[in-house]
Amino acid sequence: MRQLITVVITLALLAAVPFTVLAADHAKAQLTVVHGVPDLVVDVYANDAKVLSNFTFGTVTDPLALDPGTYKLAIRPAGADPASAPVLSAEATLAAGQNASVVAHLDANGQPRLSIFVNDTSRVASGKGRLIVRHTAQAPAVDVRAGGAVVFANLANPNEAKADVDAKTYSVDLAPAGQAQAVFGPVDLPVAAGAATIVYAIGSIEQGSFRLVTQVITGLGAPPSHVGTGGGSAANATLPLTVTVLAALLVLAGSAALVRVPVRIERRNLR
Amino acid sequence: MTASTRRRKAFGTTALLLAMMLIGGWLNASSHALLLGPVGVSPRVPEADALRTEAWGLVGQAIPSEEVAVLPLPETWIPPRHSPSPAVVEEPSPVREPLLVMPRLVEPVRIRIPSIGVDAPIQAVDLAPDGSLAISDDGDTVFWYRGSAYPGWPGRALLAGHLDRVEGGWAVFAGLHRLQPGSVVLLELADGRVLHYTVTGQARAASTDLPAELLTGENSSELVLITCAGWWDPQRHVYSDNLLVFTRFDGLAPLS
Questions:
Q1: CA angle (A141 as vertex; B100, B104 as ends), nearest 5
Q2: Are A17 and B39 in contact (CB under 8 A)?
């Protein structure tokens, strides 16, 4: 009986393969840096260490994987003494698993500033994409329009607006809030399924440096509830004859020994 | 209990166990085993920094490495930034010259796994209304879930292939269980680039209970290959399990 229990336990352990490989690495936070101040080439520092050199207007970094914690971010002109007073500085506190973006940009009056946005990486429905628009330009409040219809109304610096929309390419333009005449666009903006497309308006309308830059976060679709990759035909295949016969013999022999079938050979009759 | 009884019971148990192993072993060899076959789960292979740097460089454009500084924090890794744009869309406008800068999202079109003879086209799919992956019965095609990560981007890209065919015979991912840590997977993108992956391990999940973490691996770029395993339920027409093979991204494959 004890052997049987051991066998059962062993089988159970073999079947219950732990999902160690799946353990997600949620320990890190992710930070994307966006440069939206025209005519300024900078170095970016985090906790007094230089993380980006010669960072130019219109650049969006790949996400930086950072340990959670509070970071002192500082921006200095490219090549400036690390001990010198920064042009811009801010503190960003990143939680484990958090995805954030920090933007150096002009405010509505044309003064440089740093804004930090937390990126919405929640799941999007199948076939949908998340469109996020961030007004980080020296420009008045705008209506964001797609195909002529207002999607986000009265979006002002330094705010964001977002919606989950059908994944396709939109013809987007911008008009001063409430006005018909576009000041920018139209441009074709692809919104991918299962991804967040984050659009930053940067630069200055007055000075002609206004433009859109984008950051994309893919892989935001819900995990499938089921992946039906079986036809069933293989399951109907029969065991090879040798395997079947061997297994049957072993089953018979084993059962006989366990059940203790009395088999007595009458020696007398053999004489 | 006499000595002979003990011997007899030991023999009987051993014989039964052998019979089960025999059948189980054969099933394992024919790829849809569950009962006895231990699944090779290997620990994560530590990513090489150099390789990862290249991995992330894919998202944008590569820049000279001397421009990439590293935070002096333990286990902190800084990927290269991408420069203004892999793809610049400029369109004329009567109002003002517009400018939109976007990173390029490129879908995978073909998968090759030399060690198990896989060379198959890839089709992009979404979820069906019931939440399952909307794949066809095509046993020669591998399906990439559009809601998973784009290959080369942070996160896990999910690629599903059939184990066997409705009409009979094995299908494209029948040999998936034979992949060992170190096996090579090549993924070709629509723009002709080929991404190189290395298998890191396998896992198994009940097909009715796929882990919620399936697509989360946000801090690296990985592939998850998935097919069916376990026992066929002729009533529900599903296998009991899914076999998952994990890979890590090594970078662009050298041009051949």
A1: 20
A2: yes
Cα–Cα distance, B163 to B129 (Å, whole number): 23
Tokens for A211, please give them: 């433009």
Is the link from the previous residue into A158 a cis peptide, with omega within 30 of 0?
yes
C-beta atoms of A254 and B69 within 8 A: no
Q: What global pTM score does this model have?
A: 0.72
Say yes or no for a CB contact (<8 Å) between A214 and B101. Answer: yes
User: HSE on the CB side for A38, CA within 13 Å?
Assistant: 17
Neighbouring residues of B13: CB distance < 8 A, sequence distance ≥ 6: A3, A4, A7, A254, A258
- Helix axes of B3-29 and A2-15: crossing angle, nearest 10 degrees: 20
Q: How far is CA A141 from CA A113, A159, A197, B97, B218, in A?
A: 17, 10, 21, 19, 34
Distance CA A66, CA A88 (A): 21
The answer to whether A11 touches A5, Cβ cutoff 8 Å, is no
Alpha carbon of A88: minimum distance to chain B alpha carbons (Å) = 19
pLDDT of chain B along its 256 residues, tens only?
567 777 777 777 777 777 666 665 555 444 433 322 223 333 232 333 333 333 333 443 332 222 222 222 222 223 333 333 334 444 433 334 447 888 878 999 999 999 999 999 999 999 999 999 999 999 999 999 999 999 988 889 999 999 999 888 999 999 999 999 999 999 999 999 999 999 999 999 998 888 877 887 656 788 999 999 988 888 888 899 999 999 999 888 765 4
Interface-testing mutation among B145, B177, B236, B247, with chain A (most A C-beta atoms within 10 A):
B145
Strand order in the sheet with A64-66: A64-66, A29-36, A99-106, A112-118
Considering only CB atoms, which chain B residues are within 8 Å of A60? 60, 81-82, 101, 103
Listed in sequence order, the DSSP H helices in B43-202 are 49-57
Q: Report CA dihedral (B232, B233, B234, B237) to the nearest 10 degrees.
A: -90
DSSP B137: S
Q: Report residue A98: phi and psi, to 5°.
A: -80, 145
Closest partner residue to A218 (CB to CB) among B133, B155, B173 is: B155
Q: Are strands A142-146 and A169-176 parallel, antiparallel or unpaired?
A: antiparallel
CA distance B232 to B163: 11
